[in-house]
Amino acid sequence: MSMESVITIRDLRVSYKDREVLKGINLDIYGNKITAIIGPSGCGKSTLLRCLNRMIDLADGARVSGRVLLQGEDIYSPKIDPVRVRFKVGMVFQKPNPFPKSIFENVAFGPRINGYKGDLSALVERSLRLAGLWDEVKDRLTANAYTLSGGQQQRLCIARALALEPEVLLLDEPCSALDPVSTMRVEETIAYLKERLTIVMVTHNIQQAARVADYTAFLLNGELVEFGETSRMFTVPKDKRTEDFITGRFG
Amino acid sequence: MIKSGKDFGRERGIQLILAVAASFSVLVTAFIIISLFEEMSGFFREVSLKEFFTETRWSPLFNPPHYGIAPLVAGTMLVTVVAMIVSVPLGLASAVYLSEYAPDKLRRLIKPVLEILAGIPTIVYGYFALTFVTPAIRAVIPGTNVFNALSAGIVMGIMLIPMISSLSEDAMMAVPMSLREAAYALGATKLEVAFRVVIPAAMSGIVASFILAFSRAVGETMIVALAAGSTPKLTLNPLESIQTMTGYIVQVMLGDTPFGSIEYKSVYAVAGVLFFITLSLNLVGNRIVRRYKEVY
């Protein structure tokens, strides 16, 4: 079992104006594993996720300090172009947000702006297959993405991120806007994908973390309370607060 | 009793007043169109449609007079095209800047200023064309006529920039933030986000702003009356003095043309063509808007 850390987070602090939302996070994200970040609303879990592909740069007035190493390279180093980071670290959002373009164009968007030289249709097909959507859309690739159901749109967004062949895929509460059946399909897709890449998933759904995640990080008020293997953490939590949270006493 | 008869009567009365107010403008428009066509038919009893549309000279005051609308349409289009060449790139660029690049504070400062620019009376723009832009053009290109289509077109373009930029920016701001995030997360640069996501998604609003601007340029009167000249001429050279449809109407209306004469009636024929052009522009515009619309 490889325990190679793909992302290494050291003393990561984020503040908006004078409010500190992440207070020195230290965390290792292991390769080809699914890591879930759980915690009550406002604990900073989405902020933490957005630090991993520098989407935090887009937030007005956010200040970041500390280090985030992606395969040993600090993505906050001034030499690093945030755009290149996002090629390597893909992201899927809370609400499905396909472009108002065709299904094909949605998946092709990333490779196109990246100047992809290979066979674009083959790449689109491969990405859609990986996201488990190919069989449902292969006959209507030119249809507008908005003709798909919510769950299909979310898997399209996963396919769109996969088309860049990223090392890491970030998922920000990917199922919160979906019905149970669509949620199950997305979870199956995620479980299948960890063979190829590393997944970090924010979820407010503790059962979901228990179902799909290999590792779980519990965040509270901007601090990392506990991190470890999901099976261990959900059976014998080390911290009292973790126990209270996963047994539903708060949050 | 929940509702008295008196309340009910008042409700009916108010409804009637509102209905009259709503139909008033529709009725007035209808009357304008009817009177336009009435006077036009008077003109076409004396001048054939064939002459009106195929003759290449417009000289109602000469003997024999010629009534070919082509030079006036050409003059209008020449000025309008110059205006669009100026206003579309600048208006769109400033809309992209305001919606995608400018910090919030700056946007809140610039937007009202742009709207003030849109409120400047057109006669002021006309003066600006004649006393500032024309001498500048003549300094660069010495052979240029004092009255020319280029100067009027440039200034009209400047006048249209706030309109295009403001309406386009509204359309771009209406594009959900989640679409921008999606693109950024795929490694798009600001420019790629603007041109590949925001502009396509806002295309219907942007095209609508272009069409409104075009329509406004075709109907614009004061700038061309002051700066473009009064020489109906079938030409593509923007450095020459020309006359637009609106310019001709002003010239005749301000002159001593007797009521009911053929020259007087010719104004209505020109106005009819103008009306037809703006109407079809709006229809074509609506079609384009529907076709390009990206639904989000």
Class per helix and strand makeup of chain A: alpha/beta
The fraction of residues in strands of chain A falls at 25-35%
Please state the overall shape of chain A, judged from the principal axes of the Cα atoms: globular
Query: Overall mean pLDDT score of chain A?
Result: 93
- C-alpha termini separation of chain A: 34 Å
Order of helices and strands of chain A: EEEHEEHEHHHHEHEHEEHH
Biggest sheet of chain A, in brief? 6 strands, mixed
Oligomer: heterodimer
The proportion of residues forming helix of chain A, as a percent range, comes to: 25-40%
Largest sheet of chain B: 2 strands, antiparallel
What is the helix content of chain B?
over 70%
How large is the radius of gyration of chain A?
A: 18 Å
Order of strands in the sheet with most strands of chain B: 1-2
Largest interface: A-B, 27 and 21 residues
Supply the number of structural domains of chain A: 1
CATH class of the largest domain in chain B: Mainly Alpha
Q: Mean pLDDT of chain B, rounded to whole units?
A: 89
